[in-house]
Amino acid sequence: MEAKELLFLFIAIVTIASAGLVAFSNKLIHSAFALMATFVGFAALYVFLSADFLAVTQIVVYVGGILILILFGVMMTHRIYDTTLKTIHNPLAMGIISAAALAVILGLVIYRSPWAATVDKPFVPTTSIIGAEILTNYLLPFELVSVLLLGVLIGAVFLARTEEHKK
Amino acid sequence: MSNLNSLQYFIPELFLTVSILVIIIVDLFLKKEKKVVSAYLTALALLVAMALSFQQYNFSPASLFEGMVVLDSFAIFFKILAAFSTLIIVFISLPTFRDKAEYYVLLLVVTLGMFIMVQVNDLLMILLSMEMVGVISYVLAGYNKKNLKSNEASLKYLLFGAASTGVMAFGFSYIYGMTGHTNLYLIQQALLNNNPHPLAFFIAVVLILAGLGYKIAMVPFHFWVPDVYEGSPTPITAFFSVGPKAVGVALFIRFLTTIVAHPASTGLYDFTQNIPIKLPELLAVLAVLTMTLGNLSALQQKNIKRLLGYSAIAHVGYMLMALVVFNGNAIVAVMFYAIVYLFMNFGAFWIVETITPKLKSERIADYTGLGYRAPFTAVALAVFLFSLTGIPPTAGFIGKVYLFSAVIKEQWYLLAVLGVLNSVVSLYYYAYVIKVMFLNQPENNDLIEVPLYNKVLTWVLLIPTLVMGLYWNPVITFTENSLGLFFGK
């Protein structure tokens, strides 16, 4: 039990610290690499919640896909590599006050509210359950996503292609 | 209802999906000069989808696909409205985008998204349908790729959209945490039985309002509107200002009637809050802020599309005002206003689309003396603007009467007074455009030739705007008959 809690603390600290780095780092490339630690930290937190499938998907999609895309974008874009400080930092006092207010409100919410919790469930693999749910209860959203992706594909091709036509 | 049985109640949506695929494939075989056929096919598909939806009025209300969506007359009403608004947009777009099949396909995908959006019965479906409308809209906003303003519009729309959707999803996670359900009806039941902490519920509702408010351009989530409206191609601006907004309001009503409140025992369409929070008061403040900010900002606009953008914000304020009291009367008033708003707002944008290529400008100052240079078009624009103000005998007046009477019946007098004051403010900037067109002499007296096609479509939008101002009984009866909400999994 002790080891599990220590591990959880470690993962939580890594996740939050790297998320902070993403937000506060002045170099884009540092932010991009810090984002990797954040994503992996999330995956580890999902494991703690017995969401094994979600954890693997998180790694495959976010770390393996989106993050690599961001890194390529950063590295291959001309001169973005050492661009510094493009984001305008709002006045520090305002930021701290609003962040603190938000933290207090959300903290109150989290502590006061009796969540419909199902903690301490025994660990069961979720992949087959998710598969069955997608093809039964969640069939409609599953199918609709494919139409959405078709539209997105057409839109992306339209935006990315050059206008000059070959004669 | 099970997935297989649900299919027979899902025919308009299936038909739209098939037409999307068919148009993509047909376009591949069309020669360059025949590309306009895809536009006609799109119009035909929308007409058929409208007819198929209309025929669904015969079905008894039910929940479909294991409780993912519901089919009730309220949903059918907005489905017809959504398909009709896209149909008008296809005709508005024809002169500009004659041979762009992918443009029409994207419009159809958005329409499918709007169809789903008005039928949602699950948090997941809310998110999915809003993204379906949203993501494609970002592409449409940036459709003029070489125009910097269009690019800016697209990017701003995307960034604001992503942020507000994220906040909304966070709010959903609280709702899910409190109730353990994603189905709207089950959430309603769980809220009634478990009584979660009001503060937590209030915060969750406020977070969700960020996403819904962004979709309908409610203050303080309206920042994107002026830039997106100015930068997007005019047909797309017109599209954003009516279709997605109307279904956004429908989604808002769905959210209010399930997560926020439940049907009361006193009347068929009276609602009591699930958990007493000060939501009506909050909505009242937001409604007043929305219309005031929209109207006051519109006063200073030099660009006609920006002016119409701010006026669109103000009109959302009027609709929100009725949703404050929300009961059967108010919902009917909002539904009726959506119809009226469709004709008058499309009308105004269509005139802008007609005139802009001739004047090569969207500045109001360049409309000087339009009344002498293109009399019919200028008069039509004047009628649409008077209707937007809410001056009799136009449809806008009747729409506003219903909205205000719904508010006054529930004794929100202050709210109604502020709404009327706002209408007075709006008269100033609408009338300013009319003054520029008719009272100022033009420097250049050349007549502007308006093609017959433009005139015909203007009439199509003008006649309902005038007729509904004098004889609106059938429309309001149809709207009242369409008020049927289904609650269930």
Automatic annotation (TrEMBL), chain A:
Q: Does the keyword Acyltransferase apply?
A: no
User: Which GO cellular component terms, listed alphabetically, does the Swiss-Prot or TrEMBL entry include?
Assistant: plasma membrane
Looking up InterPro entries in the UniProt record yields: NADH_UbQ/plastoQ_OxRdtase_su6, Nuo/plastoQ_OxRdtase_6_NuoJ
Its membrane topology: Multi-pass membrane protein
Per the entry, what this protein does is:
NDH-1 shuttles electrons from NADH, via FMN and iron-sulfur (Fe-S) centers, to quinones in the respiratory chain. Couples the redox reaction to proton translocation (for every two electrons transferred, four hydrogen ions are translocated across the cytoplasmic membrane), and thus conserves the redox energy in a proton gradient.
Matching PANTHER family: NADH-UBIQUINONE OXIDOREDUCTASE CHAIN 6
- What is the name of the protein in this document? NADH-quinone oxidoreductase subunit J
TrEMBL record, chain B:
Q: Does the keyword Hydrolase apply?
A: no
| Pfam families with a match to the protein in the record | Proton_antipo_M (PF00361)
Predominantly, its location class is membrane
A GO term for molecular function: NADH dehydrogenase (ubiquinone) activity
Domain named NADH:quinone oxidoreductase/Mrp antiporter transmembrane: which ranges? Answer: 121-425
TM region(s), chain numbering: 6-30, 37-54, 74-94, 101-118, 124-143, 155-177, 197-217, 238-262, 282-300, 307-326, 332-352, 372-391, 411-431, 452-472
Catalysed reactions, semicolon-separated: a quinone + NADH + 5 H(+)(in) = a quinol + NAD(+) + 4 H(+)(out)
GO CC terms on record?
endomembrane system; plasma membrane
Where is this chain's protein located in or outside the cell? Cell membrane; Endomembrane system; Membrane
Q: Topologically, how does it sit relative to the membrane?
A: Multi-pass membrane protein
- What InterPro entries does the record tag this protein with? NADH-Q_OxRdtase_suN/2 (IPR010096), ND/Mrp_TM (IPR001750)
| Protein EC | 7.1.1.-
UniProt GO BP: ATP synthesis coupled electron transport
Q: Which domain of life is it from?
A: Bacteria
Give the keywords, sorted.
Cell membrane, Membrane, NAD, Quinone, Translocase, Transmembrane, Transmembrane helix, Transport, Ubiquinone
UniProt record similarity statement: Belongs to the complex I subunit 2 family.
**Subunit structure comment from the entry:** NDH-1 is composed of 14 different subunits. Subunits NuoA, H, J, K, L, M, N constitute the membrane sector of the complex.
Q: What does this protein do?
A: NDH-1 shuttles electrons from NADH, via FMN and iron-sulfur (Fe-S) centers, to quinones in the respiratory chain. The immediate electron acceptor for the enzyme in this species is believed to be ubiquinone. Couples the redox reaction to proton translocation (for every two electrons transferred, four hydrogen ions are translocated across the cytoplasmic membrane), and thus conserves the redox energy in a proton gradient.
Protein's name in the database: NADH-quinone oxidoreductase subunit N
Q: What is the lineage of its organism?
A: Bacteria, Pseudomonadati, Calditrichota, Calditrichia, Calditrichales
